[in-house]
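Help needed: design a sequence for this.
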């Protein structure tokens, strides 16, 4: 099962301070909009997202159809197909992708220790 590009999405209190901190560690902005309170930063192959006021906990994030540079990859497994496969394995969902649609979609699951995992397809 290929879930796509991986990143850690961080719930931050002050996005500007967090941006400056991670830039000091060598991260550079890959995408996002600080005025909308979200940024994607990269250092080598490591990607993190900074999100202020958008969710409660830090979470693991996977992006089907993207590589670590947020570039499209083909072929890829659609988020709805991943969801069906995980359902067949007995995984419980916090939020489900609409299986009647195509294109962008997402679902959220939670691991046994309460860590949220977002699978978020942008294309």
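Sure. Designed sequence:
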């Amino acid at each position: 099962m290929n879930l796509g590009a991986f990143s850690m999405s961080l719930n931050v209190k002050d996005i500007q301070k967090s941006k400056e901190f991670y830039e000091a560690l060598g991260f550079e902005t890959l995408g996002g909009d600080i005025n909308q309170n979200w940024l994607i930063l990269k250092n080598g192959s490591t990607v993190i997202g900074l999100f202020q006021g958008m969710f409660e906990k830090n979470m693991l994030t996977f992006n089907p159809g993207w590589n670590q540079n947020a570039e499209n990859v083909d072929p890829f497994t659609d988020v709805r197909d991943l969801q069906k496969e995980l359902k067949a394995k007995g995984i419980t969902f916090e939020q489900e992708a609409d299986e009647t649609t195509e294109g962008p979609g997402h679902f959220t699951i939670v691991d046994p220790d309460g860590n949220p995992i977002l699978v978020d397809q942008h294309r």
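The radius of gyration is 15 Å.
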